[in-house]
Amino acid sequence: MRRRDFIKAIVGSAAAWPLAVHAQQTGIKRIGVLIPPAAEDPLFQAREVAFFQGLQQLGWIDGRNARIDIRHWSTGEADELRRYAAELVALAPDVILAAGSTTLGPLLRVTRAIPIVFVVVPDPVGAGFIESLARPGGNATGFINYEYGISAKWLELLKEISPSVRRVAVIRDPDLPVGSGQYGAIQSVAPSIGVELKPVNMRDPAEIERGIAMIARSPNGGIVVTGSPFASKYRELIVKLAASHKLPAVYWERFFTTGGGLMSYGPDTVDQHRQAAGYVDRILKGEKPADLPVQAPNKYELVINLKTAKALGLSVPLSLQQRADELIE
Question: Domain 150-266+300-328 is in which class?
Answer without folding.
Answer: alpha beta
